[in-house]
Write a structure and sequence with these properties.
This protein has about 500 residues and is an alpha+beta fold. Among the domains are: about 150-285, no CATH class; about 430-505, Homeodomain-like (Arc Repressor Mutant, subunit A), CATH 1.10.10.60. It is built from 24 helices and 9 strands. The chain has a 4-stranded mixed β-sheet, with helices on one face. Strands 1-5-2 form a 3-stranded antiparallel β-sheet. α7 (about 165-175) packs across α9 and α22 crosses α23 (about 480-490). The longest helix is centred in the C-terminal third of the chain and has 38 residues, at about 335-375. The protein is extended and about 95 Å long. The N and C termini lie far apart (about 105 Å).
Length: about 500
Amino acid sequence: MLGQRLEIRQGQGLVITPQLQQAIKLLQLSNLELDAFVEAELERNPLLQREDAEPGGEIDAPAPVESHDAAEMSFDEGRVTDADRTLDARSDDVYGDASPGERTSDRMEDVGVGEAQVGLNDWSRAGAGGGLPDGEGREQPDSREMTLWEHLQAQASQAAFSPSDHAIALTLIDSVDEGGYLRGELAEIADRLGIALERVEGVLAVCHGFEPTGVMARSVPECLKLQLIERNRFDPAMGCLLDNLDLLAKRDLSGLRRVCGVDAEDMAEMIAELKALTPRPGAGFGGEPAQTVVPDVHVRSDPAGGWKVELNADTLPRLIMDKRYHGVVAAGSRSDVEKTFVADCAAQASWLVKSLDQRAKTILKVSSEIVRQQDAFLAFGVEFLRPLNLKTVADAIGMHESTVSRVTSNKYVSTPRGVFELKFFFTAAIQSSDGGATHSAEAVRHRIKAMIDGEGRDGDVLSDDRIVEILKETGIDIARRTVAKYREALRIPSSVERKRMLKTG
């Protein structure tokens, strides 16, 4: 017997609207990528135009970017237009602090009114519902080869540098050209960072051990020397040959033999070894050519005290929607297809203008907090770079960690001490054993060095385990492997080797 039955089922699904996808994408784009995206939108959408273009009528300009300590910005809620009706999600679904697919109205039931935050807050689960559809607009970050600079930065992150030395290494890497040579002056870098030249040279010595061998050399002879050292083929005769490469270029072999003190057979072997080396170690890496970094944020000293944080207006695309032209084409639309196209263009234009304004305000807010946290570094130099993580910044400004992470990716800030990526300011911390304030990794590193430097006077060689015990007595909770990493980064031998050196000399 057949019958009918009425059932109502309630389910919950994760929905990421195209508008939310676009907002996430815009937030993490660099200024160069953003400019390319905006140019494509200007070509596609006839209702969009640049703010500095000739106006065609009444326009809806975005609000200027302001620097103030407010909660995350929310867009004005005006009257509902035909363009707004075409959006497939409400504004509170996209820019509220609820997770994607969760209504703000639903979330308000679980938190008090005083706990609710307005504006753009939580991007942490923004990709969980699937990626963008296949096509031109889809990002494919892994589709290109790793650049030389990315390769060097990855090695610097694994080199057991202290936070301040890691900052020095990144600055040196930024001065490497496409061939792998270091083109910056060490004295200038040291003066800009407010540190001693010897310290920069020490970090560079560690970087000379990076792959490919010979990278970050300051000259061709130095590049070849590093490669010969790795092959255990560098000797005084080879050093003389590298010092007189001009004679080799002139093919003055007899002069080379006299200078190097070798016979014809040895000279032929030495030249063959040189030919097997790579004079341009960075040439094997792909990627785009090096481009001048354009900072997204400027930090200047404020005469009234503190620091003044400003967005770089040159990196902010100012778009508007021509309302008069929209009215003309909307009135002239005859078919449903034409009306739908005009409505879609209006909705996308309005949304893009709002998203760009939101992006600018979010960058300014995150940058201002980072500058506040790293005030000592800006004032006194890299030695005073304090431990900082995403959560600290996120909690201070009322945003989610994932939002801060997206904002600090591929964004640069110009400071009196140079141009740095925003992620540069996030450094590690060492916990205190007594539950007090955290200790800077750099300070702990210098303390370890001072303890080992005093071994010769005391006659007692400290093992890594003993160093750990001493540090814990002073309130520093550190693992033995960390002490070993710091010691190796300082090029200090093990306790066994140091004992042997004391006995022999």
